[in-house]
Design brief:
alpha+beta; about 20% helix; globular
């Protein structure tokens, strides 16, 4: 297949009070993406991969005290990338944001990382990694219309047989909106066999990742595992997801949505949730819409939009054939 790089695509966030910022270091071939909330958002996380790298995720457990966050951060760099949260905290502190514990405010910034340390970038960055500064820079570039593709956290990301990418998709319920964001660096593949057809094709809307549909005839090698053979080891991959909704949720409800949204990973990547992936999904609610009753469709819808976001990110990164 021949691919050409598309013009950068921007995505308009349909939920008020949410901004996303990207920052990259093209010499290191890595980056950071931040999710900033005008008001603290109720959040949860669910981890399905066996090799995660995280900061401040335990505080999101429903039984713990803190259930609201000021920001979420996704970074490359493996464990080094967790430094990005410090830069995000610095930006939030400068804007008088954070949980007030008199006499100071403590910005709450749960963070997750993916492994991009074997790409072509120069990882000899000296004494300190660049991620704190990248976290701050990403906040300074906050926007309601972030770019998709090989940007931010997904710079330097890869799948088994495509570039990785940052993708987004959205859908609307009668009582609110759901947005899924994905940073794709999976051990597996988003494509069916050797074709250019995406596993997520049944959930595509408006030809957002090419409109290829499912392959006809079905390829004999569709179920053959395509993986990064040299990176089948703990921590060398990972797909990171963020689901944002304006529907009011408790921390426990957000956790349930995060669990259901992982079905979108399984619909879009093969294989998925392997011992070499650190797959996780954050869910954040801006609490702006208080529905008369909680819709049972929210988790299923989150899975649908997550599958679309994964395919969209890869499609935008590799270009249209």
């Amino acid at each position: 297949m021949q691919y050409t790089q598309p013009m950068p695509t921007q995505f308009e966030i349909p939920i008020a009070g949410v901004k996303i910022g990207h920052a990259e270091d093209l010499n290191v071939n890595t980056g950071v993406t931040t999710f900033l909330f005008d008001q603290p958002a109720v959040a949860a996380v669910h981890i399905m991969g066996a090799a995660p790298g995280t900061r401040e995720t335990e505080l999101l457990a429903a039984e713990n005290t803190v259930d609201e966050v000021d920001a979420l951060t996704l970074a490359g760099g493996s464990a080094y990338g967790l430094d990005a949260a410090g830069g995000v905290q610095a930006w939030l502190r400068a804007h008088n944001r954070g949980r007030l514990l008199h006499p100071v405010r403590i910005p709450i910034v749960p963070t997750a990382i993916l492994f991009d340390m074997r790409n072509s970038g120069d990882k000899d960055w000296g004494l300190y990694s660049p991620y704190r500064e990248l976290g701050y820079a990403a906040c300074c570039r906050e926007t309601t219309s972030p770019t998709l593709g090989a940007v931010g956290v997904a710079v330097g990301a890869q799948t088994a047989n495509t570039p990785g990418g940052f993708g987004m998709a959205a859908s609307t319920l009668t009582n609110g909106n759901v947005v899924a964001c994905a940073a794709v660096n999976a051990l597996g593949s988003p494509l069916i066999g050797d074709t250019h057809h995406f596993w997520a094709a049944p959930f595509e809307e408006d030809d957002e990742f090419g409109g290829y549909g499912l392959p006809q005839p079905w390829p004999d090698n569709a179920r053959q595992f395509r993986t990064k053979g040299s990176q089948y080891e703990l921590g060398a991959n990972t797909t990171l997801g963020v689901v944002i909704t304006d529907i009011k949720l408790t921390a426990a409800q957000a956790k349930q949505v995060a669990m259901a949204a992982h079905d979108g990973f399984a619909r879009a990547l093969y294989p998925v949730h392997t011992p070499a992936d650190g797959d996780l999904i954050f869910v954040a609610s801006t609490q702006r819409i208080n529905p008369d009753e909680q819709t049972p469709d929210l988790g299923a819808l989150a899975a649908n939009v997550m599958s679309r976001a994964i395919a969209r990110g890869v499609y935008e990164a590799m270009g249209a054939s």
